[in-house]
Design goal:
- The structure holds 2 protein chains of 2 kinds.
- Chain A is built from 11 helices and 14 strands.
- Chain A is an alpha/beta fold.
- Chain A folds into 2 domains: 2-87, Gcn5-related N-acetyltransferase (GNAT) (Aminopeptidase, 3-Layer(aba) Sandwich), CATH 3.40.630; 128-290, HUPs (Rossmann fold).
- In chain A, the strands form 3 sheets. Chain A has a 7-stranded mixed sheet, with helices on both faces.
- In chain A, helix 2 links the parallel strand 4 and strand 5.
- In chain A, helix 7 (227-247) crosses helix 8 (261-273).
- Chain A starts with a strand and ends with a helix.
- The model of chain A is unreliable at 333-337 (pLDDT under 50).
- Chain B is α+β, with helices and mostly antiparallel strands.
- Chain B has one domain (7-86): Ribosomal Protein S5, domain 2, CATH 3.30.230.
- Chain B contains 2 helices and 4 strands, in the order βββαβα.
- Chain B has helices spanning 38-55, 72-86; strands spanning 7-9, 17-22, 29-35, 61-67.
- In chain B, strand 3, helix 1 and strand 4 form a beta-alpha-beta unit.
- In chain B, helix 1 crosses helix 2 (72-86).
- The chains are: A alpha/beta, B alpha+beta.
- The A-B interface holds A 68, 71-72, 74-75, 78-79, 82, 85, 87, 103-105, 120-122 and B 6-8, 10-14, 18, 20, 22, 32, 34, 36, 64, 66, 68.
């Protein structure tokens, strides 16, 4: 048996795509960052990929199951992740694979009818949440906002102010996943600066947990048409069980979504599902400026076109300072060309 | 020796053990073992891990081990390899010449 490690190329990528499809999985359109493939005479027998801290596209030939190939694949992926400096790994799979991955050192985080999220750290989610700040005694009902803030706008500030006024303690969660235009540490730092004066509010990272629902792997779902619906359900259950319950959060605040149909569907689902776990969803109207709602995508578009004066009314002071410095830095970086 | 980074050795294949050794500054030794033979040999495996690290003079480390029924000598070898990697040390002597 041959072993191949690294990014897939050309015909090998095609062969792995076909192998995944044969095993009832939806193959990726582009090669993942790192893939392990075990082959016999050029034919894949087992494969698995790593994308950041998420293991995905794991498949073992039906004739070889129970032969430890999955263990070999996951061992290689774990070693690669550690070389990239990642100790904490997550994976998302069908619930019936639970025992298989429990045997490989993974622990369940949250499970829905069709999806199971696991991590390679015992009590990882519980320990992470236990380390978050707690409301002072007698603070009243706790609320939460989960936002990407890419970057932090006056709309976010307004949402936080409105939310804080409606609860006794506000958790303002910043999505920690580093897939956005502005890096996670910058987004978190700007949220901290912009919300420094807001009373009874804690700005917290989501760690590896409240990942944007869009990035939960769904390649193993048969129901691909409703993949977004299923991953949003997993995301909401994770929030409710792992964050809201232990932290006593009973209110989730979200901005109205007049623009993006995906976000609107997610908000709808939030309103439908969260009450079942004792969390009420409060939809707040969006702040407008110049006849249109303020959105981070609008700010990004202006920033990329270098229209700093036009975006200035859309963002609070600290965000503007950061964008201005970034713009100058970028502009001076190109001046030599 | 002092653990300066997370490092791993071994695999999760049958009869092997995958051992990750990571820094745990001032936190002593924390061992998280996941073993197919936990009931019969859990205590013995933990003792083997702790003893091997102690012999290397490592006091602070977070160890995660996924065991698939490895023999005692395999456990000690994997722990040693992970420990040297985690301490970024290469001055080991695997072979004693007589």
């Amino acid at each position: 048996m041959e072993l191949e490690l690294g990014p897939l190329r050309g015909r090998r990528f095609q062969a792995v795509q076909e192998f995944l499809a044969q095993n009832g999985l939806t193959p990726p359109e582009a090669p993942p960052a790192f893939t392990v493939t075990l082959l016999e005479e050029g034919r894949p027998l087992a494969t698995g990929s790593l994308d950041g801290g998420v293991i995905q596209y794991v498949a073992v030939d039906s004739g070889c199951q129970g032969g430890g190939l999955c263990a070999a694949v996951v061992s290689h992926l774990t070693r690669q992740a550690l070389q990239e400096g990642r100790e904490h790994l997550m994976l998302c799979t069908k619930p019936e694979n639970r025992a298989l991955f429990v045997g490989l050192g993974f622990y369940p985080v949250t499970e829905t009818a069709g999806m199971l999220l696991m991590e390679n750290r015992r009590n990882g989610a519980a320990d992470f949440v236990a380390a978050l700040p707690k409301p002072p005694p007698g603070a009243g009902p706790a609320g939460a906002v989960v936002a990407n803030c890419n970057p932090f706008t006056r709309g976010h500030l307004w949402l936080a102010e409105q939310a804080a006024a409606r609860c006794g303690f506000l958790y303002f969660f910043l999505v920690s996943e580093d897939r956005s235009f502005f890096p996670a540490d910058v987004r978190l730092e700007l949220a901290r600066q912009n919300l420094a004066d807001l009373p009874h509010t804690a700005v917290c990272p989501t760690g590896d947990y409240l990942i944007s629902a869009a990035t939960f792997p769904t390649y193993f779902l048969k129901d691909q048409a409703n993949a977004a619906f299923h991953s949003a359900e997993l995301d909401l259950k994770l929030f409710a069980e792992r964050f809201a319950a232990p932290l006593g959060i009973t209110l989730r605040f979200v901005g109205e979504e007049p623009l993006c149909p995906v976000t609107r569907a997610y908000n709808r689902q939030m309103m439908d599902l969260l009450p079942g776990w004792g969390v009420r969803t409060v939809v707040l109207p969006r702040l407008e400026e110049g006849g249109a709602v303020i959105s981070a995508s609008r700010v990004r578009a202006l920033f990329q076109r270098g229209e700093l004066e036009t975006l200035r009314p859309l963002v609070p002071g600290p965000t503007y300072q950061y964008l201005l410095e970034e713009y100058r830095h970028g502009a001076s970086g190109h001046s030599g060309n | 020796m002092k653990v300066v980074k997370a490092a791993v050795s071994g695999t999760m294949e049958s009869s092997d053990i995958m051992v990750t050794v990571a820094p745990n500054e001032g936190g002593g030794l924390a061992i998280d073992l996941n073993s197919t033979v936990e009931k019969q040999f859990g205590a013995a495996i933990r003792a083997a891990i702790a003893e091997t690290l102690e012999q290397l003079g490592i006091r602070d480390a977070r160890v995660t081990a996924v065991d698939k029924g490895a023999l005692d000598c395999v456990i000690r070898a994997r722990v040693k390899a992970s420990a040297f990697r985690a301490c970024e040390r290469e001055d080991y002597v695997w072979e004693v010449r007589t």
